[in-house]
Each structure stands twice: as structure tokens, then as C-alpha cells.
Amino acid sequence: xxxxxxxxxxxxxxxxxxxxxxxxxxxxxxxxxxxxxxxxxxxxxxxxxxxxxxxxxxxxxxxxxxxxxxxxxxxxxxxxxxxxxxxxxxxxxxxxxxxxxxxxxxxxxxxxxxxxxxxxxxxxxxxxxxxxxxxxxxxxxxxxxxxxxxxxxxxxxxxxxxxxxxxxxxxxxxxxxxxxxxxxx
Length: 185
Fold this sequence. Notes:
It contains five helices and eleven strands. It has helices at residues 14-20, 27-54, 59-63, 150-154, 157-184; strands at residues 2-8, 66-69, 78-84, 86-88, 93-95, 109-111, 119-120, 124-127, 130-134, 142-144, 146-149. The mean pLDDT is 89.
């Protein structure tokens, strides 16, 4: 089981919020908490987009691994955590989609990354929606072919950088909104 964590904080915008909300008791902490929690949702969406831009995995498979911890007034920090095991190659783009056993034998091709296209996978076959391969010359044993785990894909430095920049941007824009909202009340 792999895990990838991205922390979200609001270091840069804190001083400005504190200055504007100095007259409101607990106002700065409330605004920061709300902005950070909203930014975590933007971060989850961005994580799905960035992984989908580079890999051929389905968005639902990515979303299943993502969880968040929310910021509170006392702890102005949130996390986006991805936990998951390696995915079977059938979760990625592959051809043919139907069983290739018996008389309908076809070469199985798989694309884990979007760049490069479908690559042949040796003597693998599709059976009941899974991509399998025999170990040795005999009929059994067979093994399920697996690809990378979602946390590994999210751990790609380009993906992490894009998620962090999007969440920091979301914190700043949401903080302005939350400050205005508190001042109007």
C-alpha cells in the first residue's frame, strides 16, 4: 500500500487577512480555515486532472484513493492524502477489451502513459476483464499483470508541483472572498 501526502497552508496571505480582520475576534482564523478547506477541494480536482493528463487511468480510480483532512481554527493546515495499491493493467487503456482466450486469441496491447501509445505485452491475455499472463510453458500458474499505484502517479514531481501551485492560488483567491464575507456580516 503506497501513500502520497500534499500539505496545504496559507503562509503568504495570513498577514493581510489578520490586518483586515483585526477588529473581528477570531475572524482571521475563521477566514483562513474556510479558504484552506475550500482549496483542498480544488487540490483534489487538480490531482485528478494532472494524473489524467499524463496517464490513461480512469478518474474514478484516482478519486477512490484521495482523502482530505480539514483545517481547524487552531490548526490552519490541511492535507490531501492518496493511499492505494498498484492497479491492474486492465485499469489502463488496453486493447482488445474482450476476452482473448480460446479461439479469439489476439495480441494484448497496453498504454499506461498517454505518450507513446499502446505497446504489445508479450504473451498476455484478457480474461474476465483482467490482463493475465502465464508463468512458464504450462497452463498454470498464471499471474495478474499490474501497473503503478495512484499514489505513485500523484508523486510524480510535475504533478505535485501543479497541485501545490493550484491549491496556493485557490487559498489566496478564497481568502479574499472569505474576508469580504466576514466583513459584510
